[in-house]
Design brief:
This protein is α+β, with helices and mostly antiparallel strands and 773 residues long. It is built from 17 helices and 36 strands.
Length: 773
């Protein structure tokens, strides 16, 4: 039987009284492998279909020629102060042949592709009582309405444990559902389609000119009739009170026949809606119900579009912020699963054969932001596709490091696709040596949250050594200052006066310095934990000691570049030089008060000049304000993110109103940072609680050190905190005011008071500790 839905999970229902006006207003479903966008059209419904491995393969084997022989000349020019001349030569030599330069070729990153569309076209009169909704807790989307005194209903899910989608059509009234079902794909001269229909099955196979092939098949199970009109067309007529459609997609990257695999996936699935739904909901909730968020009123009785309009009119709705954060968790569950590919710029949802930025894997914020909520929301395994992507890139990354920069270790590009190729493709953008370091941060996150020493030994530390080896060779001594500096260097993706555009190159951009500090510090920490490479650690410490320092500029701001250049765009969308504030953790009032103040000034300057003008950029602002313990400002930016950069179905937007999923994930991470932080050796309880969130609850958040934390607050202060220790490590807790007592198994336990509301608690593996005030 289908599971009961009486135990409604809070802030987990969105619904609308109108169909989607365009694709990006649809309701997304997915299981990592398959994805569908449901528009909810009553007269001819379209479900846009995707498969995560369906990318064009024109440039699967792209590579590069050696070009590093000009590097010494480039550096000489930079050190002589000839920034524009040096930068122009750098772009021409190291930046690849594509991108912004007039007459250059397009980049060679292959685009992510739509698989096709499922069309359902009922035959009935005018529609009333329309409703489309997405239940995040069950991961089921539905559309219902009344026409000709018949209640029509369509329900959809991408099975959380099987490589299929399931759709149920039903009609309750005097007439059955009567209409057509069709599978098709947008017109594409580079893709040959062959359609078929027979018995209860319809589908098509597709082949791109490069040889990548795919197949889609839908099977219809019904209490009525299915009739095939044309065998060479993927369509059928249906007359029934209820019908189940099971759909599968398979991809073959090597010009083999994908249809047998597609059909085998359907053969393995029971043709029973209730059984499939029960399986699916159970598997989905194992992930989704790890976190329970209760902030503000649930307001699920008000349609989502109306709630947004009320907020625009000035009415507060903190429950919408909770719904938005839960939607981000839902999207990560739906677009990233172990063994699969990482979520791209649009997650796994794309309708275009030439999508914006190819739906690529962008390494200078976007891909990383996609995974910011994974660990803190207790879903660390969902980051596995990201880690796999990095490791898949290592072999060619070694080739790129040697051919581009004559360095050991690895170099990863600013943008790529799933093929693991590391080539500069965007002249004017792609001369950047920070991608590998930023991606390596997520390996450190995985260790910090799990304390999995086997992972540290076999996966994280080997990667840190690769990235560190590149910097060992790349850094040179600046003859003017005597510091070790990266050159050429950039602050993605920002220009300054006197430099090249759209991105300026320089000596020692702040972000590169921060990434080097982060990488070498993590490498040293990992080696010490594993008791390895003492001599190498000493080498890394010497590099850190000689590395160019971060600077405070003329406005009191953290300088974005080693020289205090005049900014062309003060309100630039990237906050690259604030990496140590977030997602890094070295800027704290306790550990680096002067640089933390300077980072705040830099953030304020960005925003006062119109910064944060994309969804993902605004999400980054939320995270930064949370780290600065500014709850009201973080909340203000969460609201602006929702009202200025989201569709009615809460999907994130990048100018000019392009769906880009990173802002959804960044918003979830930002809200979590407001409630719980755990960097620099301490768990911080409610570090950035807005003054308007007087009371609330959150359960299931994860803290570094492998702790699970539940928090309840009243009057703007923590009233009860529950900490589960999964590794038995000591726990330092910062909570404003030390708790009155801590109880484990009904017995009070002692703890050490450190001052400033901090305490230290010894824990045991599996211990559950209740803090009360």
């Amino acid at each position: 039987m289908a599971p009961a839905h009486t135990d409604a999970w809070p802030h987990s229902l969105m619904w609308h009284t109108q169909p989607a006006a365009e694709w990006k207003q649809g309701l997304p479903i997915g299981n990592g492998l398959l994805a569908g966008m449901i528009l909810g059209l009553a007269t001819k419904e379209r479900t846009a279909l995707n498969h995560e491995r369906l990318w064009r393969g024109q440039f699967r084997s792209r590579t590069i020629e050696p070009v590093h022989e000009r590097l010494d000349e480039i550096r000489r020019l930079f050190f002589e102060g000839k920034v524009l001349e040096a930068s122009t030569l750098t772009n021409e030599t190291l930046g690849g042949a594509g991108g912004m330069v007039a007459g250059s070729r397009p980049n060679r990153v292959d685009p992510y592709q739509p698989a096709g569309d499922l069309w359902v076209q009922p035959t009935h009169g005018p529609v009333g009582e329309y409703r489309r909704q997405l239940d995040l807790d069950s991961a089921v989307a539905s559309v219902s309405y009344v026409a000709d005194a018949v209640r029509y209903r369509r329900e959809y899910f991408a099975h959380s444990g099987r490589p299929i989608m399931a759709i149920r059509l039903s009609a309750q009234g005097d007439k059955p559902f009567d209409g057509s079902i069709e599978l098709s794909r947008v017109e594409d001269p580079d893709c040959e389609i062959s359609s078929y229909a027979a018995g209860n099955a319809l589908g098509f196979t597709g082949r791109f000119v490069e040889g990548i092939r795919f197949a889609i098949e839908a099977r219809v199970f019904t209490d009525g009739q299915v009739s095939i009109s044309e065998a060479d067309k993927a369509s059928a007529r249906l007359a029934a009170s209820e019908a189940l459609i099971l759909l599968s997609i398979a991809v073959d990257l090597d010009d083999g026949d994908p249809l047998p695999a597609c059909r085998a996936q359907l053969d393995d699935a029971p043709a029973n809606w209730d059984d499939l739904l029960a399986e699916h909901v159970s598997e989905h909730r194992k992930l989704y119900r790890r976190v329970r968020l209760e902030i503000g009123d649930d307001n699920r009785h008000i349609d989502t579009a109306e709630r947004l309009e009320r907020m625009r009119a000035g009415k507060s709705d903190d429950g919408m912020l909770a719904l938005h954060a839960n939607f981000g968790r839902y999207l990560l569950i739906s677009s990233s699963r172990p063994g699969g590919l990482p979520a791209n710029l649009q997650g796994k949802w794309n309708e275009d054969i030439a999508p914006p930025w190819d739906c690529d894997l962008h390494h200078d914020i976007n891909l990383q932001m996609n995974y910011w909520p994974a660990e803190v929301c207790g879903m660390g395994e969902l980051a596995e596709p990201l880690l796999d992507h990095v490791e898949r890139s290592v072999p060619h990354g070694r080739v790129a490091a040697q051919k581009l920069y004559n360095c050991r270790g690895i170099w990863l590009p600013i943008q790529t696709d799933p093929w693991g190729r590391c080539t500069p493709e965007s002249r004017g953008w792609d001369v950047w040596i920070g991608a590998a370091a930023w991606l390596a941060q997520h390996f450190w996150f995985r260790y910090e949250y799990s304390l999995d020493e086997a992972f540290l030994r076999t996966r994280a530390y080997p990667l840190f050594k690769e990235v560190a080896a590149f910097y060992e060779d790349y850094l040179v001594t600046d003859p003017r200052s005597g510091y070790l500096v990266p050159v050429p260097s950039q602050s993605p993706e920002n220009p300054f006066v006197g430099g090249t555009e759209p991105v300026s190159l320089c000596v020692a951009a702040a972000m590169d310095i921060e990434l080097i500090q982060d990488t070498l510090s993590h490498a040293i920490a990992a080696a010490e934990i594993l008791d390895l490479d003492a001599e190498l650690c000493e080498k890394w410490r010497n590099i850190l000691a000689k590395l160019a320092p971060l600077q405070v500029g003329r406005h009191g701001q953290l300088q974005e570049w080693f020289e205090d250049y005049e900014e062309i765009e003060v309100g630039h969308r990237h906050l690259s030089h604030l990496y140590h504030l977030f997602p890094g953790d070295r800027f704290t009032p306790e550990d680096a008060p002067q640089l933390t103040r300077a980072a705040r000034v830099a953030l304020e300057r960005r925003l006062s000049a119109g910064g944060g003008h994309s969804g993902w950029s605004r999400s980054w602002c939320v995270c930064c304000w949370a780290r600065l313990a500014e709850g009201d400002l973080a909340c203000e930016h969460l609201v602006r993110l929702l009202l200025d950069f989201a569709t009615v179905s809460l999907l994130d937007l990048h100018p000019p109103k392009i769906f880009q999923i990173d802002g959804n994930f960044g918003a979830t991470a930002g809200l979590c940072e407001m409630l719980l932080q755990s960097h620099r050796g301490a768990i911080r309880i409610l570090p950035a609680l807005p003054s308007s969130w007087k009371s609330g609850k959150v359960a299931g958040l994860k803290a570094r050190g492998n702790f699970t934390v539940d928090i309840e607050w009243t009057g703007g202060k923590a009233s009860n905190v529950r900490i589960v220790s999964h590794a038995g490590r000591p726990c330092t807790i910062a909570c404003g005011q030390a708790p009155r007592r801590i109880v484990r198994d009904g017995l009070e336990v002692s703890f050490e008071r450190l001052g400033d509301g901090r305490i230290r608690l010894a824990t045991e593996t599996g211990g559950v500790y209740e803090l009360s005030w």
